[in-house]
Amino acid sequence: QVQLVESGGGLVQAGGSLRLSCVASGRTFTSYAMGWFRQAPGKEREFVAAINWSGRITYYAESVKGRFTISRDNAKNTVYLQMNNLEPEDTADYYCAAGRVAGANPSGMNYWGRGTLVTVSS
Q: Is residue 92 predicted with pLDDT exceeding 90?
């Protein structure tokens, strides 16, 4: 089992920045690719970013490319999502996930955190 706990969400004005963190505990952190997904009210959960076990390979949704950066610190069992130039459309619950393969499909992730809310005001 892997337990994931997100933090760093909050209220920010459009154009601002936030950094989300996700700390993992349980089984070996480096065994897993990590991802961030988000879900806005009334919408399906969608892919945001993913990173492989070493941190050398990353993937992004088109909507966040150039604005968001995913990274991980394996020594701290932590994955980050740096979010810059935030837009009201980024408002959502953000979820951290762990899986065997980095990718955009939520069904490919085995473990999920409980989420952290990001609200971007216009």
A: yes
Q: How confident is the model at residue 1 (pLDDT cuts 50, 70, 90)?
A: confident
Q: Quick one: tokens of 2?
A: 């892997």
Q: How far apart are CA 33 and CA 92, in angstroms?
A: 22
Give 61's Cβ-side CA count (13 Å radius).
17
Share of the chain above pLDDT 90, in %: 88
Cβ atoms of 119 and 12 within 8 Å: the answer is yes
Residue 97 near residue 4, CB atoms below 8 Å: yes
How far, in Å, CA of 122 to CA of 82, rounded? 20
* pLDDT of 97: 97
Q: List beta partners, residue 72.
A: 79
